[in-house]
Amino acid sequence: MKDIVYYVAVSLDGFIAGDNGDISQFIMQGEGVDKYREDLNDFRTVIMGRKTYEFGYQYGLPPGQPAYPHMEHYIFSDSMSLDNTHESVHIEKMDINKVKSFKENSPTDIYLCGGGEFAGWLLDHGLVDRLKLKVNPVILGSGTPLFGSSKTKANWKLITNELFSDGLQIATYEFQK
Fold first, then answer.
1. What is the predicted pLDDT for the residue at 83?
2. pLDDT by residue (tens digit) across 145-161?
3. In this structure, what CATH number is given to the domain that contains residue 107?
4. Is the pTM of this model over 0.90?
């Protein structure tokens, strides 16, 4: 069974975006971002919520097209509808058994792309196996929390911590059962 890896940028105070989805304070280029982009090549499956997928529109992602051309996309939403979707873009109902099926059948670990609420829903169901946090040296004060409104408690073990000259660090944690 493959792991679900929540690989996401986060502020020092635990937000994956500021108010109104603002990510302008995050580091957007440099060694750490290059490492993240390189790491994405290890994934063949990406899961995300509707808001995360639609967030890509403001960066030029056409509706229905893949954000990561080499990955199968599964967008979890009970309300989303897209016309003319690419063959690698699939819309799924919020069904935990579907996520479990992906874990069993994915050829690689699964990239959980952004989305505090969706990540929180997965955490609530015990389905986040690993965290790869791109910790940015900034305090946002408010915004989208790392795990949305989830109140689930969980223990994590630090596996690696890579530091980059621009202040970004990529901290990798495994869930402790």
1. 87
2. 999 999 999 999 999 99
3. 3.40.430.10
4. yes
Distance CA 155, CA 146 (A): 15
Cβ contacts of 65 within 8 Å, gap of 6 or more: 85, 86, 89
Residue in the block written with tokens 């109104």: 20
Query: Which domain covers residue 43, as residue numbers?
Result: 4-176
Location of structure tokens 């897209």: 82
Q: For the chain, what percent of residues have pLDDT higher than 90? A: 95
Structure tokens at 50: 């509707």
121 is written with which tokens? 């829903």
User: What one-character-per-residue DSSP string does 124-162 give?
Assistant: HTT---EEEEEEES---SSSEETTTT-----EEEEEEEE
- Confidence check: pLDDT of 137 > 90: yes
Spatial separation of the C-alpha atoms in residues 146 and 148, rounded to whole Å = 6
Domain count, the chain: 1
